[in-house]
Amino acid sequence: MTQKAYRYRFYPTQEQEQLLRRTLGCVRLVYNRALHTRTEAWYEKQERVDYKHTSGMLTEWKKQEDLQFLNEVSSVPLQQGLRNLQKAFTNFWAGRTKYPNFKKKRNGGSAEFTRAAFKWKDGQLFLAKCSEPLGIRWSRTIPAGCEPSTVTVRLNASGRWFVSLLVDHTIELLPTIDRAIGIDAGITSLIATSDGEKIVNPKHFKRLRYKLRQAQKALSRKLKGSNNREKARIEVARIHAAIADSRTDFLHKLTTRLVRENQTIAVEDLAVKNMMKNHKLAQAIADASRSQLVRQLEYKCQWYGRTLVKIDRWFPSSKRCGNCGHIVDKLPLDVREWDCPECGTHHDRDINAAQNILAAGLAVKVCGANVRPDGHKSKGQLRKTSNGKKQKPKS
C-alpha cells in the first residue's frame, strides 16, 4: 500500500468560507503562540517544550475569556498544527531545516483534518461543522474503493482554495523494460540525456518577469492598509502562482515521461543550495527547479518499480572523455563543446556528461562501485579536504 495525495481546487459557499477562514486563523494563532512559548522557554530557561506540553497549553487557552473563539472551530486542525510544529522542531534539531518561522496571514494558510473531523459519503466530502459538502472540482477520480485518511484544506496567497485528499492504495508497477538513461542538469538547457536529447528550459519566471515587475511596482505605490494595496498584493500573488503552476505542470509531465520510458535513471547528486550562491547563475538555477525535478523522479520511481541512481557530485562527468576516459584539467562553463586531447573525440559538453553519468550509474547499480576517482593524478581534478573545502591537489 502506498500513500498518495490527490489535490483539487474547490469553491466554498459563503458560509463555508467564513468557517474555513476562522479555522485557518485559529490554526495560525495556536501555532504562533506555541512557537513563541517554545522559543521563550529555550532562551530564558534552556528548556525544550514538546507537543505534550503545548497540547495542555491549548486546553488552557480555550478556557481564557479572550480566546473563547477557539471553541467555535474544530479542535482537530488545532492539534494537527501543534503536531506540525513538533515535526518542524524535530527537523531543526536534526539539522535538516532552519528554525521554524511564524505563520503570516497574507500567505493564506492550511488546516489538516483527520478522520474524526470529516465525513466521506457517496464521493462527497463533509468537513466538521459544515452542513454542505465542499464544492470540489473533480479534475481526476480517486481510485475505486479508496477513502481519504487525511484531508488538508489550503488557501494560497492569491485567494484560491485547494483540498488534498490522502489515500492508501496499491499503485500498479509499470512493465519492466530494458532501457537506462543518464541525465545531466544543464545551463543552456534544462537537462540533457545520454541518448542525445536536450530538454529546453521553459524559463517560466523569465516569461512573466516583466509583468511581475510591473505588478510589484504598483504594489509599492499603494498605501499600506488600503483596499487598493490588498488588490495589488493579490495581483502579485496571482502572477507568482501562475509561475509556480506552469513550472510544476511542466516538471510533472517531464518526470512522468522519463519514468515511463526508462527502467534505470541516473542523475547527479547536486548541491543546489551551494550552486545558488553563484549570483550569475542563481536565477536560472532557481527557475529550472532542479531539486523538484529530482524529488519527483525519486517518488515516481518508487511508485512504479523503477531504479533511480544518484552519482557523487564530485564525479567529473563533464571533464571526462566518454570514449577513452581522459580527464581534462579545466573546462569552463562557457565551453559547450570540446575535443579530447588524447583520442581526438569531439564532445558536446552536456551529452558527454549525461553518458558518463549513465555509465557511472550502471556501475553503482551492478556492483556498488565508487565512481569518484580518488587516486586520479590530474592537476585540475578537484577534491574535498578534511575541512569540507575544495582545493587542487599538489602536483
TrEMBL record:
GO MF, one annotated term: metal ion binding
User: What UniProt keywords are attached to this protein's entry?
Assistant: DNA recombination, DNA-binding, Metal-binding, Transposition, Zinc
- Composition skew (Basic residues), residue ranges: 378-395
Boundaries of every Transposase putative helix-turn-helix domain copy: 1-46
**Chain intervals for the UniProt region annotation (Disordered):** 374-395
> Pfam families from the xrefs?
Cas12f1-like_TNB, HTH_OrfB_IS605, OrfB_IS605
Q: Which GO BP terms apply?
A: DNA recombination; transposition
N-terminal signal peptide: none
- Cas12f1-like TNB domain: which residues? 292-357
Annotated Probable transposase IS891/IS1136/IS1341 domain residues: 176-278
Q: Which InterPro entries match?
A: Cas12f1-like_TNB, RNA-guided_DNA_endo/Transpos, Transposase, Transposase_put_HTH
The yes or no answer to whether the keyword Hydrolase is present is no
Q: Does the keyword tRNA processing apply?
A: no
Q: Which NCBIfam families match?
A: guided_TnpB, IS200/IS605 family accessory protein TnpB-like domain
Please give the name of this protein: Transposase, IS605 OrfB family, central region
Biological source species: Allocoleopsis franciscana PCC 7113
Upper classification of the organism = Bacteria, Bacillati, Cyanobacteriota, Cyanophyceae, Coleofasciculales
